[in-house]
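User: I'm writing a tutorial on reading structure tokens. Could you give me a worked example: one chain, its sequence, then its tokens, then a sentence or two explaining what the tokens reveal?
Assistant: Sure. Here is the example chain.
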Amino acid sequence: MIFRILEDQFAQKSAEAKAIDRRFMQLALTLGRRGQGRTWPNPAVGAVVVKDGGVLGRGWTQPGGRPHAEPVALMQAGDAARGATLYVTLEPCSHFGKSPPCADAIIAAGIARVVSAIEDPNPEVAGQGHSRLRAAGISVDVGLCADEAARDHAGHFRRVRDKRPHVVLKLAVSPDDKIAAAGRKPVAVTGEAVRHRVHLLRAQCDAILVGIGTVLSDDPQLTCRLPGMSKRSPVRVVLDRALRLPGATKLVHSAREHPLWVMTSSLSEAPAAMLLQAAGAQVMRVPTTTSPPPGLDLLAVLHALAEKGITKLLVEGGSRIAASFVAADLVDEAWLFRGATAIGDDGINALDALPLSAITGSPRLHVRASETLQNDTFTIYERA
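And here are its predicted structure tokens:
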């Protein structure tokens, strides 16, 4: 990968020194992941302050994006941070936003060395944080574990560069590539272990998206139902061009507890929008496509979500929505869970009219990981 090039500066270090750096950067990455799904619009960063081989401070971006990871770790380290090394998973910010620059806090704390995984593409940072640290006499190494950091911050990078969230498509399919029985009747395609993994994935994403067809057939909650993790539930997003979402659904009933955003067209009825808003939902109008089949413009939907701060979006279906994202080349990752029991020829195809090979055989997606979950299998495909 291209980010490996950045690690060349570590090549001259002793094997022991490199191993120590990598160990502490791995700790910073692990800490940063604690904030995933909760820090938007900011990236979920991890930071560790180390001196003489001991950890003095640990930090990760807090819910809502503030405070940032670096000041949390520095505050925990206190005066002992002077002369220490800071490991951080993304370039420290150098601009005034809703918080002062992290680079200034690092300088003020007397940090002697910063090991930064990757440069921030945000134009307000983009190397300026590293430059400010170097100008203050701090030794700065950039590029350690850059591949992992780029993956962890993929939502932030995608939003900065393409003005849209990083899109993760989740599919649970039978051996014969079906996701539901005839008539779109829900079927338990996979087992309990997969359900746990999916709920954990929900907690790691900022928002989860389904089409109105899935709501009408399944009446889902789209929350994280792992023990103690209800507050980690993502924003629920429904694509509903004609505003058919019934007020009696679980989504609407829980709109004041867990955010519900309904994306609709400018032609949908105003009274329907008012009823949803009265129940606590937020109605957002976006352009529709100009070519058949009629529907909301998916890129416009993604731009609208990015403007609201969403960096990582989980698309859970149904088959038409999934196929639309695949056909529009808007899938950055596909999480494919495959169960062991066939549904039959009259079942609903996973990608509607598209073959599943549009994912599994796509030249744009390659296998990143694969594992077995009890009787089911699980494969992650990601954009090359």
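What the tokens reveal: The two ends are 10 Å apart (CA to CA). The chain has a mean pLDDT of 92.
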